[in-house]
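debug: dumping io for the single-chain case to check the tokenizer round-trip. Nothing else runs in this session.
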Amino acid sequence: MSNRAAPTRPTLGIHHVTAIASDPQANMDFYAGLLGLRLVKRTVNFDDPGSYHFYFGDSHGSSGSLLTFFPWPGARPGVVGAGQVTATAFGVPAGSLARWQRRLASIARINAELFSRDSTSGLTFRDHHGMVIELIEDPHAPDATPIPGVHALDPSIAIRRIAGITITVRSHRDTAETFAAMGIISAHTTGNRTRLTFAASPSPSPQHTTSTTPTSAGSFIDIITDDAAPAGKSGAGAVHHVALRAADLSHQDSLRIALANRGLASTPVQERSYFRSIYSRERGGVLIEVATDAPGFAIDEPIESLGQSLRLPPSLERARQQIESALPPVTVRTPTPEQV
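debug: decoded output
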């Protein structure tokens, strides 16, 4: 296919954000126990099968709700800075921020600070490694759809999706133009913060999604320009990459062409069992993945029992005993009850 093809269809939104943690159990306790996300897949890093890869998301494991981690025991702290995602914003129901503030304080002694940005109210705080998390009131997020037998937070406060991310770069122009080529357009600039917004388009591949799969409506990428920011370095508390949604391989290839037209090389398609991926690093330093919605997380275990057992790709099954013996045991947490 020629790299001079017509402009691509926009990306469908954020597929997932992947970060690095240290202790796997502490990672489980914070994101499943405190934030009430569901562990929707417990697998290994396909490029480093001696370590876990955890996927946390909504009850269905919907594309657009997923925060994933490589929890490497003993990992050194990262440096959060230029060329990275420096905040991840989850969408929560309107009116839930006060309950979230009490929950974070009473269970984890976290003092979450209120903020207002773009006519939206939110809370900002850091996880146990210093990674910045935001909870923002999100009128565009789908209603939570509980699954019988799956313990979850009260739907009136439960996290619904990743509403947006903040990226820090030293100069925003190249980064903004790369995202624009993928259909994420500049909305406005306030100070050193430029907001990009996704086109609001429903997924064209409903056979691989659920009725609760978040659309891109109202979701965003904020680019902070800071020419004095330190260079971001990988490690615990740092985001490794952001993944954008493609409906299928054809859509993914059109997004690859959009990147190529900007002079950016992409990897060959990588098989990730639950989606297919390509990777490219834009000139501001941010690693971008483009991941397909298909085939989804229920391909190898029932949706009612997602995340309960270690799942391996077929290529690693013959080494299961060796892999399991090298991984530290973890207890999958259910959401910690609110403390009044």
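debug: round-trip ok. The two ends are 60 Å apart (CA to CA).
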